[in-house]
Amino acid sequence: MNLRRRCAAGSRAGPSWAAALLVLTLAGCATTTPRDAFEAQRLLGRGVNLGNMLEAPREGDWGLYAQDDYLRLIREAGFQSVRIPVRWSAHAGEEAPYALDAGFLERVDHVVRVALAQQLVVVLNLHHYEELMDRPAAHRARFLALWDQLARHYRDWPARLYLEPCNEPHGALDDQAWSALAADALRTIRAADPRRIVVLGPANWNTAIHLPYLTLPEEDRRIVVTFHYYEPFAFTHQGAPWVRGADAWKGTAWSGTREETARIGRDLDRAAAWADAQRRPLYCGEFGAYREGDPDSRERWTYFVARALEERGIAWAYWEFGSGFGIYDPDAGQWRAPLRDALLP
Ligand code: GLC
Known about the structure:
The chain is an alpha/beta fold.
């Protein structure tokens, strides 16, 4: 509508003006092609993780399939982006050339295509490569071969698709080992796709306190830096079966006292100050509170963290859509409205 009106105005002004205006207008319409990492980060805006689907050992193993309709629901709720965790390491050869399984790649392509068609910005990551965390040197070649294949495969895809080489590096993939491997992954991706937006975060599970130990190639400015925020951990992970000792935390509330909110503010201020000094845009790729916490506390915490991130200009993605942290109940086919509204008031 707007485009047509503006172009019509242009044609009255003469052919050269019309052409120039058309070019400008089309450039304006393609607002989803990020000029730089800062614009890329702004496009992420508010997002949600499609968790427990494609990063399960096999899709469906954890009770959820990445259904096309979820992406429509996510878009219609008002989210701008979606982060898609994928366990690529379970779908590739164990020996060189470590070929990706073609059927699985097609399946991921489909999900990404549906998300892009919904006008969502997509962060496609590599999740749960546990062997890499245990033995980074032994798995380096395979990890880089995965990214070589993925970068080539996606190089002609829309610029609204961003690549995130590794979710939550930890274990033997420590600060130093990860900074070195991240640089290698970046070099691998750049060889195929120099302008793709790449999302990278620190070791120690992408925790904000490890941002200062993440060394990035200074000259590469098409990076969005990510971190995850689950503090206080005893609140967000109470009763989480995959965390040792988490049962003892059951009943931990989050009331939003001055002390509680100040702690979150301090953590995020520190992350933002680091990013400022590095001239890098920031993205909180995961935050959320597991279902064992009481609903009021979870809603309060979710609302507070989302606003605290926004106040600092940090883009975010909630962990996650439809499982244990979920803002959507796939069995009932309904939003968990209070949690969704805490994110998108
Ligand atoms: C990380 C883990 C994921 C877990 C989430 C919250 O993303 O990879 O499995 O559910 O953090 O603990």
